[in-house]
Amino acid sequence: MYGVVLALHPERYGWLDSLDVAIHEVGHPLFGVFGEFIGMLGGTLMQLLIPALFVWDFRRRGDRHAATVALWWVAQNLWNISVYIKDARAEELPLVGGGEHDWAYLLGRLGLLDQDQLIGGAVQLLGVLLLVWSCLRGWTYAAAFVGSSDRSNETP
User: Fold this and answer.
1) Burial letters for 113-148: b for 16+ Cβ neighbours within 10 Å, e otherwise?
2) Which of 100, 114, 141, 142 is deepest in the core (most CB within 10 A)?
């Protein structure tokens, strides 16, 4: 239910937001070595890369349920990113440490600044779809685990 509330109102502060912002900010200097454009995109890249690495690692270790929880984190980041994208023209969101608005710069360079609402809406929709997928798969993996552990207690 928490995910549904956040998906419908991504502008609300969620308990992972402070962590996500810290991860985002680390991405700028990390990817900045590849140039100004990639450096600006680096915050968003890092914000998606870190939870995606958790998804990959849990899948690699065979913990499919944990992978769906991390996939939910990717979805949650997509909602946050959608808010930032939709703010590109207005530039009303407070920025950490001031500076230039990432998505105003990125969309401006790509000639897509006038499409900020459409692009932000598409990113939000992708996050909602990932939320639904991660919850459905997480539920089936958890149910399969519970079902298999119930059978292990049966006497032959």
Assistant:
1) bebbeebbeebbebbbebbeebbeebeebeeeeeee
2) 141
HEC profile for 57-71? HHHHCCCHHHHHHHH
Distance of CA 115 to the CA centre of its chain: 21
Distance CA 117, CA 98 (A): 23
Q: How many whole angstroms separate alpha carbon 156 and alpha carbon 148?
A: 15
| Pairwise CA distance, residues 6 & 16, whole Å | 11
Helix, strand, coil percentages (3-state) for the chain, rounded to 5, are 75, 0, 25
Q: What is the pLDDT of residues 89-108, one digit of tens each?
A: 999 988 877 788 999 999 99
Q: Confirm if 116 and 86 have CB atoms less than 8 A apart.
A: yes
**Rg value, the chain, Cα:** 18
Count other Cβ atoms within 10 Å, centred on residue 17.
14
How far is 77 from 81, CA to CA, in rounded Å?
Answer: 6
| Residue whose entry in the numeric block shows the structure tokens 């939709």 | 86
Q: What is the pLDDT of residues 37-56, one digit of tens each?
A: 999 999 999 999 999 999 99
pTM: 0.83
